Amino acid sequence: MPARDLAPLRCLLAVLAVHAGEPISRDRLMRMVWDDRPPAPATFGKYERWWRTALAPGGAVLETTPSGLCLRLPREAVDVHRFRDLARRAATATGPRQAAALATAALGLSEQTPLDGLPGWWASSTRATLEQERLDVAKVRFQAWSRAGEVTAERIDEYEAELGRHGPDDDAVVLLIRALRRAGNEPRAAHALRRHRERTERLGATVGTRLLRQARPVRSLRSGLPPQEAAGYQERSAWYGPDGSATRCWILSGDAGVGKTQLALRIAGRIEAERATDAVVWVDARSRQSIVAGYAEALRMVTGTAEAHAERAARAFLTWLGSGDADWLVVLDDVGDVHDLRGLWPPGTDGGTTIVTTRRRDSNLRGPHRTVVEVGEFTEDEARDYLTHKLAQESGVDAVIARLGRLPVMLSQVAAYMLDRGLTGGGFLERLRERGLTGVVPERSALPDGQSVRLAGVWRLSIDRADQLDPPGLARPVLRLMSALYPGGVPERLFGTAAVAAWLGRAATDVQDATRALERLSLVTRVHADGDRSVQAHALLLEITWTAQPAADRAAALRPAADGLLEIWPETERSAPVAALLRANARALIDHDSFELWTPAPHPLLGRLAHSLGESGDLAGVGEYLDRLLARASEGLGADHRFTLRTRHFAAYWKGQAGEHAEATRRHTALLADCRRVLGPDDPLTLKVRIYLARWCGQSGRPGDAVRDLHALVADLRRVLGPDDEDTLTARNDHAHFLGLDGHPGDAVRAFDALLADRRRILHPRHPHVFVAANDLAYWTLAAGDAAEALRLYEDLVPEIADTLGQHHPYALGGAANRARARGETGDATGAAAELAELAGKARGILGQQHPLTVRTAAYATEWAERAR
């Protein structure tokens, strides 16, 4: 290849590599390399052949696409991409040492001048961009060294040498001057500033105001008393800190105990490390009086004069901040009420930064040049790293976190308790079981990191403040109600129920406003999911709130909470997440095992939970729950109590629904004898038990016996309960079904046709029992040989079920499976097999491998797969 062709060829390859994966037209390629003097097409074709030859051994592929040429090769094979990936990771790293290591790796990939010697405007422009990116990475590394306190004389020399290979950059020189002054080398700092100014002026530019401030002596004044830094401070992934953007005020908002003040301390240290700061003012902002006092003290520090009137002194200090004559940092720690800051917000001037920590989430915290950062718990990794470092052990750390959560203040106090007593994770958890949460934190004199409040008091101030907000006196009772419920979230609609409002003696709107008051103090959060909302509080806060109440007060909240849950529990559970949240809250109430839910009569919530568990397809869960409920009822109410007998019925019913027909028959047989003895032969419960005994008989392979028993039972039900009673209709449904199984599908169709008309007359058209009858009518229409009519019925029915109950409801899945079978019988065996295979997978994921509907659908899928061959 002629030497004159090497540079253009290298440039073309560089363009394709930098833009790897991106098609580039030939015209654009030629302009990028040869500017306005592109070669002849034949010459370009020659280059293209050389590229393909050169690239083949390395595994890269040059593709010709409609949009142009595209180089396909791994991103990591191009140094520019590796450099940029490392630079991006360094800029967003959570810790300074990690940032410095990543930046060093990036700089190692770009030591040579990029694209050196390549012609064309593209190479020139890209070279300048990459040089600036390298300088930016060098700044990131030097900032990281500063934050970590690891700036040495050798690193200053290395950084200054790096600056020398680039054009003048004010921000880069600010970092250098700041480091030299911190090292006590004022002459070298002055020389660096003078040299930078000369270089800038030679280019016809001027030095920025931020750099000019570095030219004057730094006063380094301090006011207020910042807290001590926590031992083993854990870097937070949620925060990387000020980056030179337009933000002049950082608001760290979060619940008590999440580490806002420690984070503010770390950010303040970073700001001081990165720029010359004349004044650092730390203000206790829990009240307006303390803010004013802090400002007055700061005025004395910066001016050397005292002002007798505190408010005037505060205003004078704010005027000094706004003068623009100094770099300053003001930390307003633990703002209790945003209203306390009226007229006292530090000005948003260049050279000034404000950091606010607060438990509040009020909308008026936001404003121009303010950035609100939500500070939460540790992440899993942060919590593990923190405890492992503090305890110098890994054993049991995960178990402690799993039990207590990731709240920083909790973990710091627990770590101190464990260290003082020489406990392992297992030993600590054993004490926790014995003594409870408040018994495993240090006494006040042994609290770590300068803390003054034990765990139980961490949230007290926030609760007091929330209780003072409108409506006054209601936030604390609402929190106590929440402590009785599921810590993972309470349905927001519960707080608008008549039951809860009546118990609290306030309007429902007041109760809802009280949850907002708790939210404004970061005590609760709202979570939106599946079109519904829940209210969540920290599990430790709820646990402490619950255990701190007298037993009588705890018990008194249970029945109103249960009434409220029933009030919002939909008759038809269309949303699986909403139903799951309701069940979780019901379980939380029931698990308190209080007599309050059993006297003067068992609360209906006890049965509603069982029904919801079963309808959701959790057959194992409903069985386990009913067995426990039955044991509790037998012990507390007696074996012959109607509630005990009804619970026995439901336990047997769900056994049968799970396919355990023999066990269901055994249980219902024993129950029938007890019902006849205790309640009599015509009691509704006795008659109901007879329905299901007949059902299990028919499903155990004796449909003729079931038809006979149900025929007689329907007559008894009509006589005792009437023709429109739900149990009468259920018995008719079973009678028609077993008629079909006994070899009379035509009779079954006629019976279901009549039953469906009655169901629709008595119930609303989209009631689940109407869907059951309609499904059975279509099923037996198919069995009677009319596949086309059955398919028509299913095409109408299945979308209605999915729209009403949700597409993942067992009725919807079962109806869809029957529709696929009908489609197959009309001649589309392949379509039926595909749909049934998909439905079997859905059923496995939703209901589980062993659910009867899953098993049945999988069998259908296998059958139709064979028939489609």
Description:
This protein is 61% helix and 7% strand. Strand 1 (61-65) and strand 2 (68-72) form a beta hairpin. The strands form 3 sheets. The protein has a 6-stranded parallel beta sheet, with helices on both faces. It has a 3-stranded antiparallel beta sheet with strand order 9-11-10, sandwiched between helices.
Overview features:
six-stranded parallel β-sheet; alpha/beta; single chain; flat; 11 strands; 869 residues
- In oligomeric terms, what are we looking at? single chain
Overall form: flat
Per DSSP E runs of 2 or more residues, the count of β-strands stands at 11
Distance between the termini: 62 Å
Structural class: alpha/beta
Biggest sheet strand order reads: 3-5-6-7-4-8
- Beta fraction of the residues? 5-15%
| SS field, number of helical segments | 37
Low-pLDDT sequence parts: 240-246
* Helix percent band: 55-70%
Average pLDDT reading: 87
Radius of gyration: 37 Å
Summarize the biggest pleated sheet. Answer: 6 strands, parallel
How is the topology of this model organized?
Elements: H1 6-18, H2 26-34, H3 41-55, E1 61-65, E2 68-72, H4 79-91, H5 96-108, H6 121-147, H7 153-164, H8 170-182, H9 186-202, H10 209-215, E3 221-223, E4 249-253, H11 260-274, E5 279-284, H12 288-303, H13 310-321, E6 328-335, E7 352-358, E8 370-374, H14 380-391, H15 397-404, H16 408-421, H17 425-435, H18 460-468, H19 475-483, E9 490-491, H20 498-504, H21 508-520, E10 524-529, E11 532-537, H22 539-548, H23 551-568, H24 576-591, H25 605-615, H26 619-636, H27 642-657, H28 661-678, H29 684-699, H30 703-720, H31 726-741, H32 745-762, H33 768-783, H34 787-805, H35 810-825, H36 829-847, H37 852-867
Parallel strand pairs: 3-5, 4-7, 4-8, 5-6, 6-7
Antiparallel strand pairs: 1-2, 9-11, 10-11
Helix pairs in contact: 1-2, 4-5, 4-6, 5-6, 6-7, 6-8, 7-8, 8-9, 12-13, 14-16, 15-17, 18-21, 19-22, 20-23, 23-24, 24-25, 25-26, 26-27, 27-28, 27-29, 28-29, 29-30, 29-31, 30-31, 31-32, 32-33, 33-34, 33-35, 34-35, 35-36, 35-37, 36-37
